[in-house]
Design a protein that fits this description.
The chain has about 160 residues and is mostly helical. It has 6 helices and no strands. Helix 1 runs parallel beside helix 5.
Amino acid sequence: MVMRKTLLFDLYHPNLRSILDATNEWIHDGINNGVYKCGLATNQEAYDEQLFDAFEKCEEILGKQQFLCGNILTEPYIGLFVTLIRFHEAYAVIFKCDKRLLREYNTSLFNYMKDIFQIVGLITHELSFYKPSWDYIALGLNIDYSLPHDRDRFSTETA
């Protein structure tokens, strides 16, 4: 089942650019690159460094508001999602970023993933690119991102 909604708005809203740039920076450094830093770590300190702290920061923010930069869909929300949707299937398995799986965070981060998945209608089977051609591989968690989430509890505002 593919869910589609047409998005006709600016993800890099002029009134929010300074906060968007700052959020993009810590998302990119702590999470988007954090999975690689974690996966390529040569010691425990490097492994523990930023990734899971950045997840905690997301959990805290998303527990108070629908999106990372208020109650409007913006660029950092999408930038975060592209890494998170690959996390269980790829990064937790291949890069051993399994200190804590996303579904183990309270509920905000995992419900966020279901929310954004349902907005843009992504299909998880496209993640097969990340499954290596070894003799055996982890089968994955078979997570259904189309299940209900609680993100509608936040009001929708304009920037």
